[in-house]
Amino acid sequence: MRDSVLAQCCILVVDDDEANVLLMKRVLESAGYGRVEGVTDARNVQRTIESLAPDLVLLDMHMPHIGGLSLLRELHEQTPSSEFLPVLVLTADARRETLKEALAAGANDYLTKPVDLDEVLLRVRNLLAIRLSHESLKSSNAALASMLRQRNRSESRQAEHRRDRVSAIRAVAEHGLTMVFQPIVELALEEVVGFEALARFEANASPEAWFAEAESFGLGVELEMAAIEAALDQLDHIGSGLFMAVNLSPAVMLDHRVHELLCSRGQRRLVVELTEHKPVENYEELQAACAKLRGEGLRIAVDDAGAGYSSLHHILKLSPDIIKLDIKLTRDIDRDPVKRALATALVQFAEESHATVSAEGIETMAELETLRALSVPWGQGYHIGRPAPLALRAAPVF
Question: pTM higher than 0.70, yes or no?
Fold first, then answer.
């Protein structure tokens, strides 16, 4: 125990003999204890303890008015269970029964008079060390309890937030989303060949954010299926010779419920467009799922072609029926020879693999004319037609 810590400890000496009190004070102060107080009237002990909050009490056993045993019991009863106030009994009564009674009443140690002063200092030091350890542990426990309370409150808030968001996502899946449709046209003939179904949400936030949050809460299948069902409800209103493309994440595509839904109606007019926002974990499973859908008459499209190595790897693994040029490749393709070269290569690849190329994000006449010149068969974008409800669909503008 460091001297600086000793100097901060408060020791209370209780003895009806003032000479004994003065002796103990002198011994303790000489040993470096900076706060030593004495009480000679046992009736004032409790009040003194309340005002001083001592770290240790040296207590005589036989005193007028209130005996040491009674005082020990009183201190024990009035000290909270979370507190530890050590008591060192100093007594001339060396009877074994008295010492046992003192320990049973709450004393922590004892010495018989006349006492060895060095022994007193050793016992005092030991009891104070226990007292300070107890206070340190109590402080640590309080800090830990506070941290646990904060963590519990945080976890409770997170759980409440999760419940709220799960409820919101399920509510959106039931009645909070609408479908809009963007025309996909054959560029050479300027004729509509199909529509891409796109989800829109009444609440704020982008569709991408809604689908990403739904996936994080384990509701990705539920929300994507709701969007597909909403799209399929309008399949009969887009013209018998046209197809409808619905977006589906690879992970959700593996769910058997999605297969049952897609294969339940209009298979030969449906295109499943695989969105790729996360790496595919198992291409064998995804290839098997694509093969099953193709067997039912559906076609498979892969988007983001030309966006990087991962998109090309995706195409090679899945051999899609439709390859959609990424919007970044379409943008300013009329002014970028590198983009034109890549688009040309993808068109040639598609011809040799019996696929069809469709360009996304056509926003200018120059981009449209360049894509035509490169023999890109299909395209879509704001220049051709914006996504809109079928009831408000206007003819594509060229």
Answer: no
